[in-house]
Amino acid sequence: MSSTKPRVIPIVAAEAASEVEGEGGWLFEKQKKIYPRSVTGYFSNWRWAMVWLTQIVFYGLPWLQWNDRQAVLFDLASRRFYIFGLVLHPQDLVYLAALLIISAYLLFLFTAVAGRLWCGFTCPQTVYTEIFLWVERRFEGDRIARMRLDEAPWSFNKLWRKAGKQAVWIAIGLWTGFTLVGYFTPVKVLWGEAFTLAFGPWEWFWVLFYGFATYGNAGYLREQVCTYMCPYARFQSAMFDRDTLIVSYDPARGEPRGSRGRKVDPKSKGLGDCIDCSLCVQVCPTGIDIRNGLQYQCIGCASCIDVCNEVMDKMNYERGLIRFATQNGLANRWSKLQTWKRVLRPRVLVYSGVLGLICIGFVVSLALRSPFRVDVVRDRGALARLVDDGAIENVYRLQVMNATEGTQHYRVTLEGLEGAAITSKAEFEVGSAEARWWPVSVQVPHAATRALGPGAHPLRFRIERLAKGDDGSVDVVEKSTFVVPR
Amino acid sequence: MSDFFNSGWSTFIAVTTVVSLIACLALLIIASRRKPMANDNTTGHVWDVDLVELNNPLPRWWMVLFVLTVVCGGAYVFLYPGLGSSAGTLNWTSTGQYEAEQKKAATAMAAVYARYASQPAEVLAKDAGAMGIGERLFVNNCAACHGSDARGSKGFPNLTDSDWLYGGSLETIKETIANGRQGVMPPMAAAVGSAQDVVNVANYVLSLSGSPHNAIQAAAGREKFVACAACHGPGGKGTPALGAPNLTDKVWLHGWGEEAIVAMVNNGKTNVMPAHASRLTPEQIHVLGAYVWSLSRGAPTGP
C-alpha cells in the first residue's frame, strides 16, 4: 500500500433500530453492550500502574496532615486553598491558569507523539471503567460468562452475582463522592458526619451526585463517554499527523488473514500473519476492529497489542502485528529506530519548548511569590484635611493580606515625599492567612505643603514584614498619591 | 413582583416560554423520525472529494437526556418565577433568599454577640475578638465619613479625641449610632447684631481657646456672646445635652479662624449623623459603640 493512495474506509449502513411499531421508526440507537475480555501484558500492566498511582493520590491525599491541618484543602467558604506548605488566595488564580496551560500542553505533546495516551491510560473515565470492570469480572466472570449470564433467565445464581456487583459498584461510587467532598470539607469532619449521616445539604448533593456520576459513567456509559460526549476525544484527533504513534494493525504483514494450524507455514497457504482469532475485537473496550485501520473511537489503550502479541508468541510468529506505529512508518516499512527519529519534529519541539518555558515560569513564580500582598486605598470620604498647625493630612487604608500560616508583624514607612510623616500607629500584625485593613494617616507640615503646591503628589509606602523565627524580612513597595488641597 | 408596563408582556413571555418548551420536544420527535435515505445511508453531501455525511441514529442516552432537559425546564418554570410575572409555586424570591441567609448568619453570630452584649465598654475594649469585630464594623459602616483612622475631617467629628459633642459614655455613643443626631446651629446674625458685631463675637470666640485673635475686637464682642451662651454656655464650654460644641478647646469641626466663625454665625448649619438602627442589630451597635469608645481612650487595639 503506497502512502499516496487514499485509504478507502468502507461505509457501513447503520442498522435500523426500530423501537416503535408502525411505519418509519425512530432514529435512535440503544447502546450495544460491550463485553471487553480481560487482558494481561505490557500495556495492561502500565494501565494498572496508572490506576494505582492516580487513585492512591486521589483517595489518599485528603487524609494527609500538614501542620495540624489537612495537607490539601480547598476551603471555599474562607476562599483559601491549602496545598501542603502553600496557602493560595483568590489573587493567585493565575497559578490555576498556569496549571491548566501546563496540563493542556502536556496533552498536546503526548498526543502529537503517541496519540491518545491520556485516554488509554490515565483518564478518569478509563481508570474507573477499569476498576468497575475488575469488579464485574470478580462477580460475573470474563467476557463469555458475562454474555451467558445476561442471556440467562433470572435465577438465584444470576441474582446474587448481579446484586453483589451492584453493591460493590455503589460502594465505590459513594466512596469516590465522599473523597471528592473531602477536598472541600475537612475529611475528618466529614468522616465523623458520615457515621450519623449528618452531612450538610450541599455535601449530600455532591457526595450523591459525584457518586452517581462515577457509577453511571464507569458502570454503564463507559465507551459512550469517549465516543459521544468527550470534547478532548474530538480535538486530540486533530493533533495526529502521519508521524504520530498510534495503535495500528500492519496489513502488509497480516493480510490475507485466515486460520491455520500452528505447524503450517503461512506462506505455503498464501496467508499473512493474522490468524483471524478476533481476540483484538473481543478485548477492545470500544468494540471496534482495529484491523479496519484508525477509527475515531480508538482510545489508544493498546489492549489489542497485548492480546495479539500473546497470540503471536503462541504461533511462534514475530510480535508486533498490532503495534504502536506511525502511518509513515507503516507505509514505508520503517524500523522502530527510523520511526522514532521522526518524533523530534517541529510540532513536538514547539510543544516541548512552550511547556518547558511555562513550567519554569510557574516554578520560579511560585518560589518568588511574595509572602504578603498590599493594596493601598485612599480614603474616599475626604481627599485631605487640615490639622491644627496648618499641616495637611491624608488617610489611607492598607489592605494587607498575609499569605503565610502564622501571625506576622509589619511596619509601614514612607518614601518619595519630602517631609511626609506617619501620624498613626505604623506597626501592626495580621493573623495566619488573614487579610486586614490598616488605616494610616500621613501628615505633611504646612511649610512643605506650600513648597509642593496644590495637587496630587506621588508617594510610596514601603511595607516591611519584620523577621520572625526562620522567616526573613520582606519588603513590598506600593504607590499612592498625597493630595494637597487648594 | 413584575416590572412590566402591562400584563400583555407577561402573557407574551409566558406563552413564548411554553411554546418553546413544546417546540423543543416536537423538534426532537420530528427529527428522530427515520426518513429513508439514499441507497448507502448518506445524506448525499460530499466534501473534499470523499468525505460524506452518514445518517446514523442518535444514541438512546442522548435522546433520554434531551427529554430530561425539557422536563427540567418545565419543572423550573412551574416551581420558580419564569412564566412572565408568575411567582412559581415555591414563591422563591431573591429578596427572600437574601433575608433567609441574613437570618442564618445572624443566628450563627448570635452566640458570639450574646457573650458581648452584657459586658461593659471597659471589658470589651480589652477583648481582641470584640475589637476585631468592632474594627470591621467601623470600616464597613463608619469609615466613609469619619475616615479610616476615625479622625474625621471638616464637618465629620474626630472620634479619637476626648472631645464629645453629646458625651462620650458608651450609652451615649450607642444612642448616636442607633438613632443618629441632628446638630443644628441656627443663623444668629440677627440676634448678635451688626456685621461688625459678628466679627467681634468671632474674635471673642477665638480668644476662648487661646487662638490668634484681635484682642480689641474680642473685648468688644464679649457682651454680644450672650446670644451664643444660651446653647454654648456662659463660658463657651458647650452643652452635651444639645450637642453644642465646646468653644474653648482647639477642636474646630467646621473650620478654624475668624472667617469660618463669621460664616457660621451668619448662616448657621445643620449637620446630620444618620441613624443606623435599621442597618445594624442592637448587639452589633453595642460592640461597635465599645470600639468607638476605645478609640477615644487610645486603646491598644485601635489604630
Description:
The complex is a heterodimer of chains A (486) and B (303). Chain A is an alpha+beta fold and 486 residues long. Chain A is 43% helix and 19% strand. In chain A, strands 9, 10, 11, 13 and 15 form a 5-stranded antiparallel sheet that branches. A 4-stranded antiparallel sheet of chain A has the order 14-12-16-17, with no helix packed on it. In chain A, a hairpin with a 4-residue loop joins strand 4 and strand 5 (80-83). In chain B, 52% of the residues lie in helices and 7% in strands. In chain B, a hairpin with a 3-residue loop joins strand 1 and strand 2. The model of chain B is unreliable at 299-303 (pLDDT under 50). Classes of the chains: A alpha+beta (486), B mainly alpha (303). At the A-B interface, strand 1, strand 10, strand 11 and strand 15 of A face strand 3, helix 2, helix 5 and helix 6 of B.
Quick take:
Chain A is of the alpha+beta class and 486 residues long. Helices cover 43% and strands 19% of the residues of chain A.
What is the quaternary state of this protein?
heterodimer
Helix content of chain B: 40-55%
Going by helix content, strand content and strand pairing, the class of chain B is mainly alpha
Rg of chain A (CA only): 33 Å
SSE class of chain A = alpha+beta
State the order of secondary-structure elements of chain B, H for helix, E for strand: HEEEHHHHHHEHHHHHEH
Instruction: Please give the number of β-strands of chain B.
Output: 5
Tally the helices of chain A: what do you get? 18
Helix fraction bin of chain A: 40-55%
Residue stretches of chain A low in confidence (pLDDT < 50, at least 5 long) are 13-24
Instruction: Name the chain pair with the biggest interface and residue counts per chain.
Output: A-B, 38 and 39 residues
Query: Proportion of β residues of chain B?
Result: 5-15%
